[in-house]
Design a protein that fits this description.
The protein is an alpha/beta fold. It has one domain: Rossmann fold (3-Layer(aba) Sandwich), CATH 3.40.50.300. 32% of the residues lie in helices and 21% in strands. It is globular and about 50 Å long. Keywords: ATP-binding, Ion transport, Nucleotide-binding, Transport, Zinc, Zinc transport. GO terms for molecular function: ATP binding; ATP hydrolysis activity. This is Iron complex transport system ATP-binding protein.
């Protein structure tokens, strides 16, 4: 198996369950999860990460999965460099602590995302956008083939949002499988595929179909003023 394979997977918790889902995510692919609040996007991501057990079906992973919670949900007084380096802790099972190579890899990842100047700043004193870029830098050093991001663009200004989008594409360019939930439809429009989660249905399709006016209406009960894929006015 060369990808993340879901076979009749039913994710759920506390009396709530999603419809069965069959999906193969290949290396280098970005899949966007869209749907209204409460649709089950986070539940699905946590099930794929192994943080919640499936109610039915199977999840076959080609390796470890790294889960990134929404912006603002991580609080730590470590420096940005130290927090990033901690992403390599699982690679040193027999070592009592981090090595110089871990901090070098962390610094390189921060520099890659243009936040190297924040390396010595306490993580909990960074803005939401800066924190998100640091946490994505940690994904780069984790070497996990599967990256699961929960609302990576929430709370971010346009500049930081653009930087996070570029970082997500860079993760995929390295051959990782990326699944990200989002309410930012222009981001979903740039994904390879979109998984739309409705009240009692799940649809997997290309962005142009998933983000069409009829599907936006079915998902959110609103009329889209413009097409997320091309930006042209709808109607």
């Amino acid at each position: 198996m060369s990808g993340l394979l879901l076979e009749r997977l039913v994710a759920g918790r506390k009396g709530f369950r999603l419809p069965p889902l069959d999906l193969l995510v290949r290396p280098g692919e970005v899949v966007a999860l869209i749907g209204p609040n409460g649709a089950g996007k986070t539940t699905l991501l946590k099930t794929l990460a192994g943080l919640l057990p499936p109610l039915q079906g199977q999840v076959a992973r080609p390796g470890k999965a790294a889960y990134l919670s929404p912006p603002g949900s991580v609080a730590a007084g470590f420096s940005a460099l130290h927090l990033t380096a901690l992403g390599r802790a699982a690679l040193r099972r027999w070592s009592p602590g981090l090595a110089l190579a871990d901090f070098e890899a962390a610094r390189a990842a921060l520099d890659r995302l243009d936040v190297g100047h924040l390396a010595d700043r306490p993580f909990d004193r960074l803005s939401s956008g800066q924190q998100q870029l640091v946490l994505i830098a940690r994904l780069f050093v984790q070497d996990a083939p599967i990256c699961l991001l929960d609302e990576p663009l929430a709370l971010l200004d346009p500049a930081h949002g653009q930087a996070v989008e570029a970082a997500v594409r860079a993760l995929a360019a390295e051959g990782r499988m990326v699944i990200a939930s989002t309410h930012h439809l222009p981001f979903a429009a740039q994904a390879d595929r979109v998984v739309a989660i409705g009240p009692d249905w799940i649809d997997i399709s290309a962005p142009a179909r998933a983000l069409g006016p009829d599907r936006i209406r079915a998902l959110f009960g609103i009329e889209a003023p413009a097409c997320p894929c091309c930006g042209q006015a709808v109607g």
